[in-house]
Amino acid sequence: MEREFWVQRWRENRIGFHQSEINRFLQAHKDWFGKRLDGATFVPLCGKSLDLMWLRRHVPPVLGVELSPLAAEAFFHEQRLDPVRTVRGAFQVYGASDIELLVGDYFALAPEVTGPIGAVYDRAALIAMPPGMRAGYARQMTALLRPGTPMLLIAPFSPKDPHEGPPFAVAEDEVRALYGENFHIERLEHHRYTPQMRPELKERGLAFSEENVYGLIRA
Questions:
Q1: Do strands 150-154 and 209-218 pair parallel, antiparallel, or not at all (unpaired)?
Q2: Distance, CA of 132 to CA of 10 (rounded, Å)
Q3: CATH topology of domain 3-12+22-218
Q4: CA distance 149 to 75
Q5: Through-space distance between the first and last CA atoms of the chain, rounded to whole angstroms
Q6: Per-residue pLDDT for the chain (219 aa), expressed as one digit of tens each?
Q7: Domain boundaries, the chain
């Protein structure tokens, strides 16, 4: 998935992945962030997510990374915040009221850019990665985190073409293959839906879909 793909999606306002309310799994697992270390709550590929504001209230400060400056600008505009703009390495930084958004390439991040990360919330980043990029994404995440850092990971799955996306389906065995060597992994929630429960699955030719929530701790 090339950088220009996501930048173009924001230019064209094709952002169906944006949620118009706070994620229910984030709210349900608020206590997971009680395990956090000193440092920022990190949100990879954050877009203009409303979850950033929830995290600011409960586990500040918040640090997001996002490719598109349009997303960062939209976030601060919609939240009526006036960000200070600076530069940190190869990243533009938008900061206001316990939230910093780094505009640039996630794969170019380094600890000296992020500073200490206390916890991670991944709702939209891993599932934005096609299969060929996920191992690199997980390696980068591992390199950024200290032992003991918790991560809340939301990863839906359905038996569709693995290259159909984004968002892409990520199975539990793949989560464990990507992170199992360097993280302790616990599945916190699992929901399975059939076409009888969700008629849109039949329309898409899917036998089922799943919602999975994982809690990971950096070993």
A1: antiparallel
A2: 23
A3: Rossmann fold (3.40.50)
A4: 26
A5: 29
A6: 566 665 565 555 554 554 678 999 999 999 999 999 999 999 999 999 999 999 999 999 999 999 989 999 999 999 999 999 999 999 999 999 899 999 999 999 999 999 999 999 999 999 999 999 999 999 999 999 999 999 999 999 888 877 787 888 999 999 999 999 999 999 999 999 988 998 988 888 889 899 999 999 999
A7: 3-12+22-218
Residue 101 contacts residue 65 (beta carbons within 8 Å) = yes
Tokens representing 141? Answer: 């995440």
Rounded-to-integer distance, Cα 92 and Cα 32, Å: 30
Closest to 5 (Cα-Cα) out of 120, 92, 133, 143: 133
